[in-house]
TrEMBL record:
Transmembrane segments: 28-51, 71-91, 97-121
Top-level taxon in the UniProt lineage: Bacteria
Keywords: Membrane, Transmembrane, Transmembrane helix
Keyword Membrane: yes
Protein name in UniProt: DUF2178 domain-containing protein
Length: 127
């Protein structure tokens, strides 16, 4: 009986190590599948936008009214996105602390507001 226990533990440790390798491999493929889904989703969204604009242009729906609606929708979306980034940022600090995702959110917010400042200056200078 005493000799079977070390053999059993050896078998268990080998199984554990092989499962650990499988988990690493599965994580890799899960990440690849996720990135592929992201690329395919963005490609489909871009195709839908381009096809929609083509039909709108053909039916003469791209006028000043549609442009005004689009500008106001983007402005509202921008403000909601800014608020959501700040809320998620605060939740991230409370729940996880200062981790890599905190710095990603910081980079996203700084880029978001820098782009806003740049385009506000650009459009103000051109008008």
């Amino acid at each position: 009986m005493p000799t079977s226990l070390p053999r059993f533990l050896t078998v268990i440790s080998k199984i554990y190590l092989s499962l650990k390798e499988m988990k690493t491999l599965n994580d890799f493929w899960n990440n690849m599948i996720g990135l592929t889904g992201l690329v395919v989703g963005l490609s489909i969204a871009l195709a839908v936008i381009l096809i929609n604009r083509k039909f709108m242009k053909k039916n003469r729906q791209l006028d000043e009214r549609q442009h005004t609606i689009s500008v106001h929708a983007r402005a509202g979306g921008w403000m909601v996105t800014s608020a959501l980034i700040i809320i998620v940022w605060a939740v991230e600090i409370v729940v996880e602390g200062v981790t890599f995702s905190f710095f990603l959110l910081t980079f996203l917010y700084v880029g978001h507001m820098t782009a806003y400042g740049f385009f506000a200056y650009h459009h103000a200078a051109n008008n």
